[in-house]
């Protein structure tokens, strides 16, 4: 693994460990919170199992597990599909919205720590490079296995 890939991996592991530690107060994991945050910022009937799997770039089974846990904790609910539709839209409960709102300061703090000493221009460039790298991987590697 080259140094860039190694640092991306190390950053991901460190962030997830830190976030999991901070989220213990809600009995949530980072992927569960990411799902809540996504649902909070995209409250439409288009929020479905397939849509979440596509957005996060994971398999349906991973999303099913996260949704089951969030449902058991009464943080989300699934509506019955509209007539002629097969997919059940997913929404936050009030309890789920409250957790996302409460955790907003924590997320801002983590972002502040992560980007300390990095200018807005550097951050924009980093985002652009990472987006392009991800696109390259999806096009050049992930689509080959299907």
Q: What does this protein structure show overall?
A:
- With 146 residues, the chain is mainly α.
- It contains 6 helices and 2 strands.
- A two-stranded antiparallel ribbon has the order 1-2.
- Helix 2 (30-41) crosses helix 4 (60-72) and helix 3 crosses helix 4.
What's this, in brief?
The protein has 146 residues and is mainly α. It has helices spanning 3-23, 30-41, 49-56, 60-72, 94-114, 120-140; strands at 76-78, 90-92.
Distance between the termini: 24 Å
Order of helices and strands: HHHHEEHH
Mean pLDDT over the residues:
90
Q: Strand order across the biggest sheet? A: 1-2
Task: Provide the structure class.
Answer: mainly alpha
What is the number of helical segments per DSSP (H or I, 4+ residues)?
A: 6
Beta-strand segment tally: 2
List the helices and strands and how they pair.
Layout: H1 3-23, H2 30-41, H3 49-56, H4 60-72, E1 76-78, E2 90-92, H5 94-114, H6 120-140
Antiparallel strand pairs: 1-2
Helix pairs in contact: 2-4, 3-4
């Amino acid at each position: 693994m080259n140094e860039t890939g190694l640092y991306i991996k190390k950053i991901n592991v460190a962030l997830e460990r830190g976030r999991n530690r901070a989220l213990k107060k809600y009995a949530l994991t980072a992927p569960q919170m990411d799902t809540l945050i996504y649902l909070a910022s995209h409250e439409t009937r288009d929020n479905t199992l397939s849509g979440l799997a596509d957005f996060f770039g994971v398999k349906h089974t991973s999303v099913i597990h996260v949704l089951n846990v969030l449902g058991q904790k009464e943080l989300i609910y699934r509506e019955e599909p509209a007539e002629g539709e097969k997919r059940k839209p997913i929404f936050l409960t009030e309890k789920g919205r409250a957790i996302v709102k409460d955790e907003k300061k924590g997320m801002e703090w983590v972002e502040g720590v992560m980007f300390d000493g990095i200018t807005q221009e550097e951050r924009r460039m980093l985002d652009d490079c990472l987006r392009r790298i991800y696109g390259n991987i999806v096009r050049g590697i992930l689509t080959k296995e299907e």
